[in-house]
Amino acid sequence: MFRIVEKRALADNIYLLRIEAPRVAQSALPGQFVIVRVDEQGERVPLTIADYDKEDGTVTIVIQTIGVSTRKLCALSEGDSIADFAGPLGNPSEFIHLSEEELKSRRYLFVAGGVGTAPVYPQVKWLCEHGCKADVIIGAKTASMLIYTEEMEKVADNLYIATDDGSCGFKGMVTAKIKDLIDNEGKSYDECVAIGPMIMMKFVTLTTKEYSLPTTVSLNALMVDGTGMCGACRVSVDGKTYFTCVDGPEFDGHKVDFDEAMRRQAMYRNQEGVATEKHNHKCNCF
Amino acid sequence: MANKIPRVSVREQEPAVRATNFEEVCYGYNAEEAQLEATRCLNCKNPRCVAACPVNINIPAFIQKVAEGDLSAASAIIAEDSSLPSICGRVCPQETQCEGSCILGIKGEPVAIGKLERFVGDWSLENECKSCVEITPNGKKVAVIGSGPSGLACASDLAKMGYEVTVFEALHKLGGVLVYGIPEFRLPKEKIVAREIDDVRRLGVKFETDVIVGRTITIDSLLNEEGFSAVFIGSGAGLPRFMGIEGENLNGVVSANEFLTRANLMRAYDDEYDTPIYVGKRVVVVGGGNVAMDAVRTAKRLGAEATIIYRRSEAELPARREEVHHAKEEGIEFKMLTNPIRVLGDEKGWVTALSCVEMELGEPDESGRRSPVVKEGSDFTVECDVVIMALGTSPNPLLKSTTKGLETNRRGCIVADEMGVTSREGVFAGGDAVTGAATVILAMGAGRKAAKAIDEYIKSK
Fold first, then answer.
1. Interface of B with A (CB under 8 A)
2. Phi, psi (deg, nearest 5) at residue B246
3. Which pLDDT score is estimated for A284?
4. What is the pLDDT of residue B363?
5. Contacts of B16 by beta carbon, 8 Å cutoff, 6+ apart
6. pLDDT category, B287, cuts 50, 70, 90?
7. A170 DSSP β-pair partners
8. What CATH number should be reported for the domain holding residue A201?
């Protein structure tokens, strides 16, 4: 069992959980994910690591309540335990292999969308600690949905907020902000990293392609085991099939078949709908 | 003198009933049936069954004890060579091993060795205390990676020798392929697997789940930082293969590993559990091994019309004969000499059919089986909404990529000798991680041999 040492509501339906998992914390690197199972009946849910602290042996995850499992997770309180917390899984971000000089000479643009802002944080933090400059765009529908802005402010070189309704920062989509930065503010970048909903990542890669800006995306494919055994997370990259769990989760965004990835992500949506209804029904009983 | 009666038939659930539930198909022998069947054994002077058993269980000796009604003695004889009789009695391919070489099988039916082994194993689980053995701790620690058949066997032998053993399991549940792969209707999880594991635990073996060696920790950290004197790799062969044909990433195409893991490990068929499973109305399973049979029969139990598609003929089906027989009884359709060439889908990307070609058998290939050749112009389609690929598995490359100096062959299997010695000092391996997907009994045997080698290695240091 893995104890929840901290729980915070970050926005509507978005919660932060800091979990006691010393072995995972010890080995975690930016870009990796964990598999979480809330209880005996629970699904194995892949979640990208939002932060880790080797000293106190904790790992932070940020969850948006969308289905039965995420709802069950978010219903827990500080001091409660979850059944399983396995990881770190997947490959760390490519940039951790770069030399100090290379890091110092590069400039990154991170594009974070919604709950995907959380996994961007450890990457920017790591780069900041290694002397690499990174600008960050955080996108959300509206100001109340923004998360991690304070934390990001501390590690990003420049932080830009983009909201669809203009309630905070730039009014418009993150893609419009990318264009704004490059076209109007004269910014230039060596690499873009986009993490967020599939549809956002798809449009970010279409935008960055116009500027020939190499773009890495972190895919949140469906998974069962997360260790290479099931193949549920198959994704086509440059016409070849990869397993997101062991070959990713980060891929060259310009080569990912996003339409297929989005379709595959919806494979169990009908069943999940049924399960959510059942769960809600059960919850109303008491 | 042996009793010249026909093989005692074993009681099973009615096919029509069992095709709708996940209860065990075969009830096994009761004491009278077992004793009667045991009297059929000729007790050959030169027993071919022993030679044909991958771990050389003294089969005639244990059967004589069953005939005498001395089950405790029978159990002790099996225990000399096998630590998992309840499991192997259920899942071993007896027809190509012990029973396949039984003299009685030449003219009639071989002795039901598998069913007798299962009977003795189950009796022992029910009536014997395996942890009653005296253990003198020797203060040395050994790490075992994987809690499947090879890991369990290795861990229990080492524990009996006095080692402090910790088993690291990547998944949340112990048992490896015994829990994620083999379905409940063939191998009951609580009644059999969990109890075999409890026996190992009672020997003092520690288990840590949710630890992915290669990610959470590494072999080097176990040896250098955590004080383990040796490591045994029993991580199995878990990576599913796909065909590489067009349409394989359509919604509705899954690996047998995924389908079975959802059903077995995650209990997706049980409403109380949250994991979904997509079954559809018409399921086609591609492959002819035990995993294919497990997948197709699981699909049937979940309410689908289910078909096996296999590129060779029925004689070459690598599955246990009993599974093929049971599958047919349950109404599974078998399309032999058929090979898929493309998966067809609708405009939304969901599977609608499998495009196939007919095959015929040509010359024998390196496996000795006649290799299938495409019949020109024989294309046809099979309508279906789910395609399950059961084409075999290979070992996970994670341990190789995170362990310096650990040699693997071109199929990704860890290179190890007969005793499980690998290219890395202090690191031993056995089971599917070394051989590629094989059987429970071979994996168990390899785990036990490695336990001996580990003991010798640590003592020689």
1. 170-172, 180, 209-212, 215-217, 238-240, 242, 244, 248-249, 251-252, 254-255, 257-258, 261-262, 265-267, 271-278, 348-349, 396-398
2. -60, 140
3. 37
4. 85
5. none
6. very high
7. A162
8. 3.40.50.80
Contact A73, A82 (CB under 8 A): yes
Sign of the alpha-carbon dihedral angle for A203, A12, A149, A53: negative
- Arithmetic mean of pLDDT, A219-243: 95
User: Which token pair is A201?
Assistant: 């990542």
Q: Could you tell me the CA-to-CA distances from B419 to B219, B422, B434, B456 in Å, in that order?
A: 19, 9, 11, 11
pLDDT interval class at B210 (50, 70, 90): very high
In a domain, A240, yes or no: no
Cis peptide bond N-terminal to A88, omega within 30: yes
Which residues in chain A have Cβ-Cβ distances shorter than 8 Å to B251? 263-264, 266-267
B79-86 mean pLDDT: 90
Rounded mean pLDDT, A21-31: 96
Query: What is the token pair recorded at A6?
Result: 């901290």
CA B84 to each of CA B37, B238, B268: distance values in angstroms, whole numbers, following the listed order: 21, 21, 27
The pLDDT tens digits for B332-378 are: 999 999 999 999 999 999 999 999 999 999 888 887 778 899 999 99
Tokens read off for A236: 């086509």
* Count of other CB atoms within 10 angstroms of residue A242: 18
* Token pair for B327: 């599958």
CB contact under 8 A, A263 and B277: no
Every domain of chain B and the residues it spans: 15-128, 135-238+395-460, 240-393
Q: Going by C-beta distance under 8 Å and a sequence separation of 6 or more, which residues neighbour residue B349?
A: A260, A263, B250, B251
* Superfamily for domain range B135-238+395-460: FAD/NAD(P)-binding domain (3.50.50.60)
- Whether A255 is covered by a domain: the verdict is no
Which residues on chain A place their C-beta less than 8 Å from a C-beta of chain B? 23-24, 27, 37, 41-44, 68-69, 72, 83-89, 224-225, 227-232, 234, 236, 241, 246, 260, 263-264, 266-268, 271-272, 275, 278-279
- Regarding an ipTM greater than 0.90, the answer is yes
Cα gap B310→B338, rounded to integer Å: 6
For an interface test with A, give the residue of B177, B208, B210 to mutate (most A CBs within 10 A).
B210
What CATH code is assigned to B15-128?
1.10.1060.10
Q: What per-residue confidence (pLDDT) applies to A275?
A: 55
Which CATH code for domain B240-393? 3.50.50.60
State pLDDT tens for residues A52-63: 999 999 999 999
Q: How far is CA B384 from the centre of its chain?
A: 28
The per-residue pLDDT for A285 is 38
> Does the bond joining B240 to the residue before it have cis omega, within 30 degrees of 0?
no
